[in-house]
TrEMBL record:
Gene (name only): LMBRD2
InterPro entries, sorted: GPCR-associated_LMBR1, LMBR1-like_membr_prot
UniProt protein name: LMBR1 domain-containing protein 2
One Pfam family linked to the record: LMBR1
Coiled coil: 224-251
Compositionally biased intervals (Polar residues): 618-634
Keyword NADP: no
Key words, A-Z: Coiled coil, Membrane, Transmembrane, Transmembrane helix
Membrane-topology annotation of the record: Multi-pass membrane protein
Biased composition (Acidic residues): 658-669
Transmembrane residue ranges: 6-21, 33-52, 103-126, 146-165, 177-201, 378-396, 425-446, 466-489, 523-542
Amino acid sequence: MSGAALGLEIVFVFFLALFLLHRYGDFKKQHRLVIIATLLAWYLCFLIVFILPLDVSTTIYNRCKLAVNSSPAESNGSYVTPAPSKQKCFKPWSYIPNGIMPIFWRVVYWTSQFLTWILLPFMQSYARSGGFSITGKIKTALIENAIYYGTYLLIFGAFLIYVAVNPNFNLQWNQLQTIGIAAANTWGLFLLVLLLGYGLVEIPRSHWNGAKRGYLLMKTYFKAAKLMTEKADAEENLEDIMEEVRKVSESIKYNHPLRKCVDTILKKCPTEYQERMGRNMDDYEDFDERQNSYPSEKSLVKLHKQVIYSVQRHRRTQVQWQILLEQAFYLEDVAKNETSATRQFVHTFHSQEPENKIIRYFYTPTVEWYWECLLRPWFYRVLAVVLATFSVIVVWSECTFFSTKPVLSLFAVFIQLAEKTYNYIYIEMACFLTIFFLSICVYSTVFRIRVFNYYYLASHHQTDAYSLLFSGMLFCRLTPPLCLNFLGLTHMDATISHKNTQPTAYTSIMGSMRVLSFIADGFYIYYPMLVVILCIATYFSLGTRCLNLLGFQQFMGDSEMTSDLIDEGKELIRREKRKRQRQEEGENRRREWKERYGNRDDSTRNRVVHTDQKESSFSETNTNRSLSKYTRSNGRTERDRIELLQDAEPLDFNADSINDDPLEADSGR
């Protein structure tokens, strides 16, 4: 089994990252490089989280093996190993041979850092650019990132000059590398604590509120009102942009040098707008015949960027509106079925997606009623209590993990108790549950937050390229400090435990933080305590209240604005429900009519076609006879027609109206 666990987790994590990316991204419409870069960033970050427990169990086994081969007072290289217990240590089932983990962590860490600090920011600017060629997009991306990269180079260059001039510093390459890692981890830890403080409270509270049917339904009405406003704004913005595209398309004709750029913009527009603009085109008019003011290439690049953004936003709001409608209809069905005497779940509307026969065989209406109306609320309550317990343990350990005598961090206590008995399965499970819960609290916040319309992870393939790349940047910057924080909570980091023992392979790659003592002994230890203040602020919804005061409507039960939006959303859902009911009733009537009169209509249609064929053949015969009759006098008919045309009076086009219908003329219409 040596190395088999590592291989299995590598494959499993890859498919997990691919599944999540498929849920949020669109493989068919988005650029392949964007998909590959985001998948690689997510994959590496998830891989670190899943592989780190194996590193911990392997390190504990190596410590035991070193302790068996040496006496308590004997040193082994740079590590002084403690005396082992009387029980003989054995190799864990997931043991990874020596030399593999350091290489693995080095490749994973530096690849993720290259992605987050160099490649992904460049690809963000490239994806957001409105250029019409690869060269133009690269040029725009370089210009936008010049300040970004220049700031870091300036700070790093000033630091190198200071070290070179000051004789008290004698830094080597390994120490400079450690300083760079410490600077990146400090930035990540600053953001990590903010996101962790929000997730530790919001995740248990969201599951507890998930058991309240009335709460979920009211919040759905609130979301419907806000989404309708955003949807109307997106439609209006798209109309304005399409009007500008129409004007540009009409002014720049087929032989203009910038016509290729206009065609590229038109391809990004929705189909109905393309057809509308195509009907109004006059490609036979030369652009040099009239002296018009034509837009420049720079303005077309800006227009191209606006078209991409507006079309993506319009499509996203349309899809989210349909999803929200289905959610609201389902919650209303749950509220109605709670008082059902038959204990069978009845849906108001049939599902628009094809149903899986295997799922419907086991998930019958009776099973669905028991799950939705009885079991699911209690399951969410129990899960919320378990998550709240984990949150309390994390907050306590974050505030006390620096204490080594006595050991106050509960995660460190659990790991040390398992280490005495060398129960590797328990060690790996405890480590995995701990770091998995921390990752859920942090990563779920990344998926939930929304920075206006610039960063927003929307499910059902509605996330744009910019947001996908930005999420990859955040994951790569948050994961290394998250893992170091986990090792500090479990006292597997020698910087925290103050023991001269063999470190984990992950810690050895990070280097010794003793080079920067004010960071190792100060910031890394005391800054995570701020999670207590952030948890209290999240519990009392201080951030939500501040946003509400600034004019950003948030769901608050004691707000008058919230009540108004709930009523508005309820009316919108009722209106959409009536519309769908009328559609289904019309479809049912047409289906019944077709089933009842379908055969009769077919026979009648056949008789009509047969009669038309007879009439058409008879009319063709008469036409041929009349043509043969009048061909003899063809010359005379032509002369009469010419005379009639010469004697005809010209029409008065200056009249107020021209009407050929005498009835409408008499009526004065």
